[in-house]
Design brief:
about 160 residues; alpha+beta; Methane Monooxygenase Hydroxylase, Chain G, domain 1
Length: about 160
Amino acid sequence: MFNIGDKISYPVHGAGVIEAIEEKEILGELRRYYIMRIPLNNMKVMIPTDNVEEIGIRPVIGEEEMQEVLAILASEMTKMPQNWNRRYRANMERIKSGDIYEVAAVVRNLILRDREKTLSTGERKILNNAKQILLSEIILAADITEEEAIETIENAVK
């Protein structure tokens, strides 16, 4: 169970801060929800408290995990399928996993691939989505600005 003020990560949406815990009736069903604000785009998300495990909600990473994320960003590109469709699906699965290390690997691989040859529109969209998720978590984990987080990622990817 999380509390107001806790920093959490929501797979596919990114990291945010729990601002409230409220009971709401939606479709005739009364449930408790975490009201999370994602600072990157100031979006608010309602998360049913009884689905936290299934959704994959977890606390934001700490300093040790942050160093591991930076190491992943700085490492070599991993082998990806040549087929665009397979690559797209593999990257989407990695993002949906909610594992910050997988998201960091997607960001690194797509940035490096973009440097070699321009990404397709679909892959650019995946890169932007993965980058937003990674940025939101880095901002909260390191307590830095969006600009500093962008710089951190850019400086890490070689």
